[in-house]
């Protein structure tokens, strides 16, 4: 046995050996409560690629509320009286400008405009207009940045979601959360840094790549916390194996691994020993996190969630709890916004599913003092068309995919409160002011996290890749 | 160059040092090498603005071509003046303190170290010589160096090359690992499975100096070898059992996967392996197998999302193929050149689209158009056995067709003979007796076959009116005929009944029946309900009865002949129903008849004898037989009027009558002819079913008229630039003789598979090296371009590549590697060596690697004895937690956990769905196979610990492992512990280890003895059946212990 391996033989000595990486991580789990995790910049407990941030960050973490299927900007955020006037009349060629449209409506003889059936009203001191179907989100008017001039390059769900998530339409690249985990590390050793929660069913399918690591190592992909069964796969001991029996097996594994480490000196063995301790502590920390039974009734009232019933609102409560515990990037996927037909009824229902929970999350973070360094993003993968897909009936019509403009909102973490950015034409079809590309948005998001989007790169197959691919401009106007 | 490891966030990982830079760059005494020392730095820091891409070039200065670099740039200054660093602008700019002038500029975020600057200065002083990028020059076979200074005698050329470097570093090989450890290492490395105890014992007992080599030969000959080496190839091929995009529906791709496994097992030379997979369909007289092989490039992800634009997706597929080709055979990404000339390597956009043109002629669509089948082009891929069966059936069909045709020619003559007989004997027009007949023309009386009268008593409203033959008995729901205690059949009796009925379109009841009323409804009847006819045979309704119903509705208000036969079997299958003389399909609604159907209720026409189910409609010509009628007889029974036509003289028949008679004869009476036709039909049906069940496989094919290919401007699918033809790229050597015609995929494949190709052999042996030693000689296994890492042992790589290209013999090359001392030495490492060579690039110790995801699972199943070794075939559904596939719902069903032993097959065979891959494999770094992937990360995370501890697959394996140890492991704890240890790790238990395990046994016994229910609960995880008579507490204790062993780092490492 040599001096090097000897150091590993007592657990404490081993854990203290390294001031970064493994040692620091495990030490943190033992010595520091998760809540006291360090600021990024002064050293997360699981370090990321970046030794130092590129500038002072405004945000430490992100909660991304992904509205899968693409909500209609025209019926929620971007009022267009002109469309009401033009309902039943063909979209002027001067507006469409030969823009490609999907195979679902390209064959339609007419592209009749259709106005929103919902009333818009001004909200907050800023007086931003919101649709009547999202009264709670509307009440955040003075807190959020509303970007009405987002645009994307894809016209179908799969490539558009992949593009918004990774900056590239084709699979293979890391998502926003994976870049955050890779670059910034994690602030809680007992929880994964990037977590994903699902709600809503039906509608467009989800792919695990939407929260995947791409070409980054697997641990940067999101861990899905599940609503049923174990929150994290395989978290619970098998039925019949008590905590005491498990502890005994882990002790045995660690002792045997330590003997092997002594004989071979392979640091992979040391890593595995630490991982068993982490797994064991996750068995406590994750159920504690997922257990909402100790949340007061007022929380459930605020979010509009029912105790014990999985929902988007319940996931919003979990997102807040994860934020409190220092998770880096939390992604909530809510499905079925793809309203090609029956939009008035379906959109109203969908809005109801998310309105209160999303708004409550922002309010709750604010009252807990967390909103200042937590970014909340709400949005889909593209917008919807000014013209109807299919016939316009008395109470029903549809809208097809529209990449040229859409609206998202963001709150907290350095986004400018009460800000409306960008504008679209009278048809909500083309952007007239301040277009924001997906890459611009990513650049801005990373900036708020203290990262220069040009400098967070990963070399893969000979090229230094970044989240913003080969473009991306900081959108200064939306930064507080 | 920055050596920050990618393994640095999220979950804790091994800390990786920056040692390599020092190892692989120049020593002060050597001349500076452009290829090794200068070009990589230029590539990283200069080429972006002064490289091959003329659109982004700055200052009109190009540095990647010497002639250009020697010219004056825009500033008028000359970048490079050979031999005169003090006059060369490049040196001035590197060393200047002026922040405006310094290169690289601050906004490039690149820096060059002082040592590197010094190398530039020396390089210019030494003449600024350029050389081509090393990987683009064909490898020459270098001489094997002679070395001293190592503790072992060197026989293997690999060791000779490695030893050279070790000597220079004053390092030494470790002694050989113990035989058990080595056998386990090589067995896992070559087969992905652990050695059996018999194999370990055989090696230990073999005194021959060839013992290890014999073991290697045995492993290479094992079918398990193909399953193991296929896995990294499937990563490159982005092979999956699903389409990939959007709803990610399932595909049938296992036939191609089996081809890969077979090709490795048969040791198909790598040049053939390459050619068949890229262009098997284009080989002259391509075999089924070669066409199957061509499916490599069909593993591309495809989409059937509504509304996608065909041209956009077709472009995506072809771009993916070019990228996959680049990574797999060229070992470099050429995807950058999709939009612009490559920034670092001499790959132009034209080169990219020239590759593109090779793959642009497949008859396929962007919107693949199917969510259930393989998209076109595809073919069926029958196994050898299925091919034999198909051939046999084809023969059967031909023979039966010939016979039927021959008999058909004789039918008119046969019909005449039949008619003559009928005309001569009126009785021959009837069915053979005995039967009872009720003509129902004017009264309800019947006759027996021998002429005895049967008296029928009419009751209620009855009327004799128009019938099928003569008049019929017309009933309005109140009238009926009581025939007393006749036809009291029992369940073992055989009988047949036929009658003409016209059914009213209303609740229409039972035209005949011998059945009592509630509660039992014992007896039998024919009943119409909602348009369908039923036959009931009832002991006790509803539990004990046969109920058979016609599948189709029968027409209302028209006469039709309804009949059935019953074979006395007591089964629903024994009831056959006929309409108008032809058998019809029926549905079995009830099929359980344990008791008698005999009843005291009378037989009646117009209702059940007991009075139930009154009938509305007409009944005519009722026949009842105490036997089963044949199909021909049934046809005849329903055709009484047709038979009468035979009595009309042939010349006097109308055409309609003649046709009717002819048709009747041919369809019902020509027994031999009908039998021949039927056997042809049967064989056709069997063949059709077999063909429907044949697996299909996606293959490559060429369109008759190739598509034109254009450079896509900035990669946009709808912006065509210059037209291009399929061609080889300018930066690599071309074949000497080029076909004058358009180049095809076959030309491309042959170019790649040429021994002169500078990349194919290098890239391939490097991947094999990485598979066995953990890291490639070129660490960047997917980048042999100028951004890639300089090889740790360039001469060794060249030697291995040139040697491989001699015969492309994969098994020989792998054997050579595992026979090296480098592979065989002990993996133990000292702190100082670890600090000097964290990644073990110098091989001053043996390779020690965590198993790849698939083999983590296979290994546990093998140790436990659960592993099902079946080779190839359809993918399987082992246990998977609920809610995985459901995130992306599939039309037509989700994950179906199979409970048979298919669930214990190797992980290679688990259904792979790209959007929702098998979770425990992902946790151990298996790629999702969306895009081509060369090499996997080897992470170590707490999620992996959770899998090994708690995934029911591993808990079940622990149970089986425990049962195996109790059964086979000898009489006591001591023997059993050692047995378990050897099963998992091949070696004997050391005393320290024994102490830990014994302590754990004591503790687990304490815990489970106090809670027997817990023990019994644990023993229910998974489908493995606990051995009879085993004490559950002991089994649970050993299950916990087995779980410990399956979780050890040593268990999941090789």
Attribute tags:
heterodimer, A: 480 residues, alpha/beta, Alkaline Phosphatase, subunit A, nine-stranded mixed sheet, two-stranded antiparallel sheet, 17 strands, B: 1054 residues, alpha+beta, ten-stranded antiparallel sheet, 22 strands, 11% strand, disordered N terminus
Report on the structure:
The complex is a heterodimer of chains A (480) and B (1054). By secondary structure, chain A is an alpha/beta fold. Chain A has two domains: 91 residues, no CATH class; 352 residues, 3-Layer(aba) Sandwich (Alkaline Phosphatase, subunit A), CATH 3.40.720. Chain A has 15 helices and 17 strands. In chain A, a hairpin with a 4-residue loop joins β2 and β3. Chain A starts with a helix and ends in a 15-residue tail after the last strand. By secondary structure, chain B is of the alpha+beta class. Among the domains of chain B are: 111 residues, no CATH class; 145 residues, no CATH class; 116 residues, no CATH class; 167 residues, Jelly Rolls, CATH 2.60.120; 97 residues, no CATH class. Chain B has 36 helices and 22 strands. In chain B, the strands form four sheets. In chain B, strands 2, 3, 4, 6, 7, 9, 14, 15, 16 and 19 form a ten-stranded antiparallel beta sheet that branches. The longest helix of chain B is centred in the middle third of the chain and has 25 residues. The N terminus of chain B is likely disordered.
Layout of SSEs?
The complex is a heterodimer of chains A (480) and B (1054).
Chain A: H1 3-6, H2 11-17, H3 21-31, E1 61-67, H4 73-76, H5 81-86, H6 93-96, E2 120-123, E3 128-131, H7 135-138, E4 144-151, H8 157-166, H9 176-184, E5 194-199, E6 223-224, H10 243-264, H11 267-290, H12 297-303, H13 312-324, E7 329-334, H14 343-367, E8 374-379, E9 383-393, E10 396-402, E11 406-411, E12 419-421, E13 423-424, E14 431-433, E15 436-437, H15 438-448, E16 458-460, E17 463-465
Parallel strand pairs in A: 1-7, 1-8, 4-12, 4-15, 5-6, 5-7
Antiparallel strand pairs in A: 2-3, 4-11, 8-11, 9-10, 13-14, 16-17
Helix pairs in contact in A: 2-3, 10-11, 13-14
Chain B: H1 20-24, H2 34-45, H3 47-50, H4 66-69, H5 89-95, H6 114-125, H7 157-168, H8 179-191, H9 197-205, H10 211-221, H11 223-236, H12 254-265, H13 270-279, H14 288-293, H15 310-330, H16 349-358, E1 378-380, H17 384-408, H18 411-424, E2 435-438, E3 446-448, E4 453-454, E5 457-459, E6 462-466, E7 471-476, E8 480-482, E9 495-503, E10 509-515, E11 523-529, E12 532-540, E13 544-550, E14 560-566, E15 575-579, E16 582-583, E17 586-592, E18 604-605, E19 616-625, H19 631-637, H20 640-645, H21 655-669, H22 671-693, E20 696-698, E21 709-712, E22 720-724, H23 745-752, H24 760-773, H25 794-807, H26 810-819, H27 821-824, H28 831-836, H29 853-864, H30 919-923, H31 942-950, H32 952-968, H33 973-985, H34 991-1009, H35 1012-1018, H36 1032-1046
Antiparallel strand pairs in B: 1-20, 2-3, 2-19, 3-4, 5-8, 6-7, 7-19, 8-18, 9-14, 9-19, 10-11, 10-18, 11-12, 12-13, 13-17, 14-15, 15-16, 21-22
